[in-house]
Amino acid sequence: MTYRVCFVCTGNICRSPMAEAVFHARVEDAGLGGLVAADSAGTDGWHEGEGADPRTVAVLAENGYALDHTARRFQQSWFARLDLVIALDAGHLRALRRLAPTERDTAKVRLLRSYDPAADTGDLDVPDPYYGGANGFEECLEMVEAASGGLLAAVREQMEGRAA
């Protein structure tokens, strides 16, 4: 059974598709491509149907990541098929937890940077780079990369627990 992760930011054109692309690469590198699926969505539907922000695409490409993406809005019904819902900041975390139909679904929602052992636990947000320059997108990628290894380890642990 496939383990499913969905990354969520506001518009699904910057942070969450970046996290999806990085995590997908980590999953493939770990040989788990057939066992773990990653996608992304937004808490709002402002950019539904659009591709990722060109700056996101450029930063990912410069760092060896591929991305084929169309923005979409997160739907409450998806909780039933997802194992983890990864919020990119505290606002997304709150919105997703309010949307969760059950306590079990609420427990699926986590902050991405909570998987980065070096992150400042007082601020686990991945800042929105949309209104800034290229540096913001590069910093976003650094934060996403730093958390992806810990997230992959947690997913592996949960998959092993499920199989036992």
Strand order of the largest sheet: 2-1-3-4
What portion of residues belong to β-strands?
Answer: 5-15%
Provide the structure class: alpha/beta
- Element order: H for helix, E for strand: EHEHEHHEH
For the terminal residues, how far apart are their CA atoms? 13 Å
**Unreliable stretches, pLDDT < 50, 5 or more residues?**
none
Give a structural overview:
By secondary structure, the chain is of the alpha/beta class. It has 5 helices and 4 strands, in the order βαβαβααβα. A 4-stranded parallel β-sheet has the order 2-1-3-4. It is globular. The chain starts with a strand and ends with a helix. The mean pLDDT is 96.
Helix and strand topology:
Layout: E1 3-9, H1 15-29, E2 36-42, H2 54-62, E3 84-87, H3 90-99, H4 103-107, E4 109-111, H5 134-163
Parallel strand pairs: 1-2, 1-3, 3-4
Helix pairs in contact: 1-5, 2-5
